[in-house]
Amino acid sequence: MKMIKTLACLALAATACSTSTGDTTGASSSNQILTLAAAGQGPAKAAVEAFEKANPGVTVKTTFTEDDASYQQQLRTQLASGTAPDVFRMWPGGGNTMAVRDLGEDGMLMDLSGERWAGGLSSDLKSVTSDPAGKVVAVPVTIGAIGAVWNDQAMQKSGLSKPTTWPEVLRFCKDAKAKGVVPFALGLKSAWVTQLVPYALTASLVYGPNAGFTQQQKDGRTTFAASQWKQALEKYLQMREEGCFNDSPNGVGYDEQMQMFGQGKALGVVHVLSAVQSAVEFAPQGTTFSMTPFPATDSADGTYVPVSVGIVYGVNAKAKNPDLAKKFMRFLASPEGQALYATASGSSPAMGSPSFNADALQQPVLDAVESGRSTLYPDQGWPNPKVQQEHLTSIQELFNGTVDVPTVLTRMDEAFASTN
């Protein structure tokens, strides 16, 4: 909780695969060319364009991959083969193969500890941007959150109220279904989406009531199977049985999920707030979106919001243009870069920016943080990437009916204990 409170003070105010390259003419030499890769195009493209504008003659060659799993696999392969770009997006802390600690442990990231912005990071921000040796190897760019995100116009048309307790969630699903509209769009074909509802539920059922849960796991004092994770996954299935989701979620991808949501065929999604940027592409002009914490208990006062540093960038340890790469890092750490990236991604800035103003999506997150009703994303404390990967694939199998909840949790416990 200490980390989240610090982030709140710093913040003043997670598809189909596609690749594109933005080649701007005018670079006179190789030391004016920077290569960059990111998962998700919009925010990164905005940052690149602003950086090029501020640095005449610089060309940033970009590769964008819209699917997180494909991006992680591609970058890992490139890093291993020596063909990776100078700068690339990563994930904070640990939890997957493209997370800071995992890449840092493998010696794939440049030490940025000597940068002025790195010296100004709080100990909490350093904890998710440092390698196992304690060297800062990433710049934190945004704060992300998971909650119930709403299509305001679709909600108004439905005449329904946003649920604030778990019983209200089930009643909302029943009433929405009776009106012929999907309560919550769900696209489990994109594996990374599978984790979002469980993260929202366990914030209130596990990590909010017991902030030390992950450390207790590491100490051998508890397990996923022996905790309220079981109740969370059972509630996930209950939502499916009560008609809270569209038909056949495992056959629906992220793009289709966002199309359904943006067009108002679904009233909401339980998602990272940055997903709104994708929904806007499908929404009629004038559509607005808002967020509320997603409840898991019988009391609204017991609802927590999963909040965490969302996007971080690092520099390839074998970057072909390290000086220009560091200059781009300085831009991302600047108030201008922080506000620009946060606004473009539908997030809040990780390091603060006086020009950033919170909206109907971000303000509830900051309110939850200020009131002590926020938790970290679970995977940032997990000891290895295997836990998250087991979680993603097992949820898909759970929705297919090929495994049950105890099996999912046993697999996750085995992955958590794995040292290989």
From TrEMBL:
PROSITE patterns for the chain: PROKAR_LIPOPROTEIN (PS51257)
InterPro entries, per database record: Bact_solute-bd_prot1 (IPR050490), SBP (IPR006059)
Species this protein is from: Nonomuraea roseola
Source organism, top-level taxon: Bacteria
Name of the protein in question: ABC transporter substrate-binding protein
Signal peptide coordinates: 1-21
Keywords for the protein's UniProt record, in alphabetical order: Signal
